[in-house]
Specification:
Distance between the termini of chain A: 76 Å
Shape of chain A: elongated
Structural class of chain A: mainly alpha
Oligomer: homodimer
Strand content of chain A: 5-15%
Order of helices and strands of chain A: HHHHHHHHHHHEHEEHHEHEEHHHHHHHH
CATH class of the largest domain in chain A: Mainly Alpha
Strand order of the largest sheet of chain A: 1-2-3
Radius of gyration of chain A: 30 Å
Number of domains of chain A: 3
């Protein structure tokens, strides 16, 4: 099979077919494609063309396409569809995707769409899922799963399972519950195939099953599923009743989003923008951090203004402020990034003070090497040992302080329950710039006896 | 089930049991635990204790534990095991994990271990897998899969499948091949359960199946599997023969490693270190980037030394160099990060020049806002309009140039086949520092007529 490739030719071919209203050809062309590929095409079309396609194609295809679209494209298309049309798309979707899409609608439309869903049970399940915070296991789970009662025998189980499996795209495990609906264990399809049909489920199920609670954070679910290499995990409520199931494809999305958010925070971008977003959206995501940097720079200028008396005899001290600021920033970001990643991987053991001592030793080792190099370079350049010494000693101390700040801030934020990732990027660089320059001038003044 | 939690008490309990050589108690305690949890415990033990545990426990348990250990811990433990003992562990593992572990051994041991593997077929498969580059589909795939011939009927298929399924932890799809072993399509377990036993596979299989080639990059496999929400994908060779299968749990690891590598590069850390690594390893990962920053800082100092004549009348210009450097760095990193992420998500369409024009407009919008703020602040502070104007105009231009550099470099690297992620972090900040300061002083000199 040749893999799908989104080309300009394909887009213009489709645009021409839409213009000519060649319904048959469009259907033939698109029904061949995977819904994720159709979504890529629709993202490139204008709103009118996209809406036309959605009204043309079967909701079996368009419903899945809908879940894969860019958020803003989906929002606009849904505005162009009636409540009835949206409900038809919803009917085709698994409960988790259905709930996510309805949750994106304006509140007054949500109710209208839900009322139009013909399958009452499906509607009730969607309403249940919408109650959960989207970042929790409850918000990630789907109601579609295969569960059997421990008091059944294998024959009844296989029969029931076939009925339930109709609604479940992929059966990973069969969950075993008791009469109260509490999760007791699991069965594999393989086991079921190889066990006598008269055996009682009670006697054959595996009582060991990992599960998460509806209120567990998505990140925690991701950690458990990837640690134990699970492809699906059952979700239980406060009374340990089986209420849903999370599959690995949703967790892959959580992992990717989490990584992107951390990456963007480190780069000084408020989360959730893409290269193709509008200039205004990109500005909104980037300007606040730049403004923070600007304030930091003004602060640094004010500090330097306060040390003007050094200028006369030792102007060279001022030439090295960008170096000091850059090194303070770089060391701070390195330290913070290691901690943020360690926290994300649940890898940080031991006390904060041990961590700080380690970082300090590390900074001292790096600092001494870099300071000696700088001492030689500046001494050779200006043949003034005093100012060369002042600059190098300051660099050494600034590196240590920057390392400590970079280690401490994310650990501190994490203890307070704040996402430590905001400590990387501009936040650390800006505060380290200011601290670094302040320390630098103090030490220079001290060594140069001014 | 209460989730596993690694505590200091548990570690010392186990250490005491090892010291007392309480084999029975240790076995009881550890056999209850998941292999990934045992790996967390072993990571905390010293080498002698860890080796003792590995010799004590069944290789059924320890083999999986081995795959989950930290690289350096595994290396040391393997050094303490004989070729025969390692071969016993290998026998228990799936071919992909087995090949990864053998590949980590020194070359002379690899051969010895392979000779000790009793199952000839298993050994041959491992040897085959070791030929592939670890970053390719061939390096990620396992030989364990369930495949049936299109010329069989359902009954024969179910029989064969049961035999093959013995060796396969999780059956996702049953792959259908022709007499030459070429991949033709797939069957789901569900389909098999609901089809008459005399039906020919040829008539019931689904001819549409995504596959990747042995030489496809791991990143590409990850992109396809996560785009199409696949839990497993078959791997074919140059002749389209089915040679292996990649499962989503391995791809989750690829996605996480890729994200960590990009994050670390952005933070100025050469890939593959963790918070718990030794100070020497951490220094090796961090020092080169700091050294680059140091050189950049020295470059900036040299540039500033060349503009010494500005000092006399307009010392304030020097006070704002850290601000200019910081803003150039921040804007550059923001632009580069958006591009790197867009490239990773295959989201960047259109030409480089369009991208640069967009980034320039964005930088102009951000630049004008920040420059006006800075103009007012500096004017109020020093009541010298000329220098305030020089500083603000420079900031505006520096932001635009930084944005262009930040956009261009990763796009350029990507075209050349180099990982664009190295363009983020210290690389961009350092080059932007130098360019920024150079432009800044040029413009200041121009506006102030010096």
């Amino acid at each position: 099979m040749t893999p799908f490739k989104l080309t300009d030719e394909l887009i213009s071919q489709i645009e021409t077919l839409i213009e000519k209203k060649s319904e048959g050809q469009l259907r033939d062309l698109l029904m061949e494609l995977h819904y994720a590929d159709i979504a890529e095409i629709v993202n490139e079309l204008d709103l009118e063309e996209a809406t036309y396609l959605f009204k043309l194609l079967d909701s079996e295809k368009t419903s899945d396409t809908l879940t894969e679209l860019d958020d803003d494209v989906r929002e606009q298309i849904l505005q162009n569809l009636s409540a009835k049309e949206i409900a038809e798309e919803i009917e085709e979707l698994d409960t988790d995707d259905a709930a996510d899409i309805i949750a994106e609608l304006p509140e007054e439309r949500q109710e209208k769409v839900i009322q139009q869903i013909e399958d009452e049970e499906h509607a009730a399940e969607i309403v249940e899922l919408m109650r959960y915070d989207e970042d929790t296991a409850g918000g990630l789970m789907a109601k579609e799963l295969v569960s059997v009662n421990e008091n059944w025998n294998v024959l009844k189980c296989v029969k029931e399972m076939r009925v339930q499996a109709e609604n479940v795209t992929r059966v990973h495990s069969i969950y075993v519950v008791d009469d109260q609906g509490k999760l007791k264990g699991r069965l594999s399809l393989k086991d079921l195939l190889t066990t006598s049909t008269t055996a009682q489920i009670r006697d054959v199920y595996i009582p060991k099953v990992d599960s998460v609670s509806v209120h567990d954070k998505g990140e925690e679910v991701a950690r458990i599923m990837s640690k134990y290499d699970l492809e699906a995990i059952p979700v239980v409520d406060e009374m340990h009743r089986l209420v849903g199931r999370i599959t690995i494809d949703d967790i892959v999305d959580v992992i990717k989003e989490e990584a992107e958010k951390d990456y963007q925070l480190a780069a000084g971008i408020t989360k959730d923008v893409e290269a193709d977003d509008s200039i205004l959206e990109l500005t909104r995501a980037r300007l606040p951090w730049l403004f923070l940097g600007l304030m930091g720079g003004v602060g640094a200028a004010l500090i330097m203004g306060g040390f003007e008396e050094i200028l006369e005899k030792h102007a060279i001290i001022f030439f090295f402020t960008p170096l000091i600021a850059a090194m303070a920033g770089n060391v701070g970001v390195q330290s913070a990034a290691i901690i943020v990643q360690g926290l994300a991987n649940d890898d940080i053991k031991g006390s904060i003070s041990n961590r700080l001592i380690k970082e300090m030793s590390l900074a001292m080792l790096n600092g001494i090497i870099l300071a000696v190099v700088l001492l030689v370079v500046t001494w050779v350049w200006k043949s003034n040992f005093d100012s060369a010494l002042a600059i190098s000693v300051s660099l050494f101390i600034v590196i240590i302080v920057a390392g400590i700040i970079g280690t401490f801030i994310p650990l501190f934020l994490n203890r307070r329950g704040i996402d430590p990732a905001i400590a990387t990027g501009p936040f650390i660089t800006t505060s380290n710039d200011i601290f670094g320059i302040l320390i630098y001038f103090w030490i220079a003044k001290l060594i140069l006896n001014i």
